[in-house]
Amino acid sequence: QVASFVLFGIMCMMVPQCRGFEGVIVICLFLGLCDGFFTTIMAPIAFELVGPMQASQAIGYLMGLMAVPMTAGTPIAGYFNDYFGNYHAAFYFAGVPPIIGGLVLSVVPLVHQRMLQKQRLDSGKDKMLAPEAVVNGELLPGCPASEAHM
């Protein structure tokens, strides 16, 4: 998803560089692929982050937040066209948020790993250093501990 965000931003910035129809087709192909990658991965990420009970609500919030720039983008691009005389600045500015978002998303797993390590260290201080004894029956899946001690 991070790669699709960054590539999406780069492709947006490359639209003004196209000199022929073939270039626009290639860029639109990559834009569509990146959008498809993001859309398909959105649901599994929502399930992982908030769980299955709140996943639909999280996806709804995400779609609602995505609607704001989608709605405001066209008038802003028109303003840039009036001010600069072309749409180049609009495409360059449209590429910046996905690139920044991709870079921020690339840092999230590192922060999450550090938080998990800190929790493990904090919880390890309260326990004894010796590992707990495990009964052989508890190692088998589906075998409750009460049956294992019989």
TrEMBL record:
Q: Which GO terms describe its molecular function?
A: thyroid hormone transmembrane transporter activity
Q: List the keywords (alphabetical).
A: Membrane, Signal, Transmembrane, Transmembrane helix
Q: Show the Pfam families listed in the entry.
A: MFS_1
The entry's cellular-component GO terms read: membrane
Q: What are the transmembrane regions?
A: 24-47, 59-77, 89-111
Report how it sits in the membrane: Multi-pass membrane protein
Q: Where is the signal peptide?
A: 1-20
Q: Which SUPFAM superfamilies match?
A: MFS general substrate transporter
Among its keywords, does the record have rRNA processing?
no
The record's subcellular location field reads:
Membrane
Domain of life (superkingdom)? Eukaryota
Task: Write down the PANTHER family for this protein, in alphabetical order.
Answer: MONOCARBOXYLATE TRANSPORTER, MONOCARBOXYLATE TRANSPORTER 8
Record-given protein name: MOT8 protein
Q: Say which species the protein is native to.
A: Anseranas semipalmata (Magpie goose)
Query: Which taxonomic lineage is given here?
Result: Eukaryota, Metazoa, Chordata, Craniata, Vertebrata
Gene of origin? Slc16a2
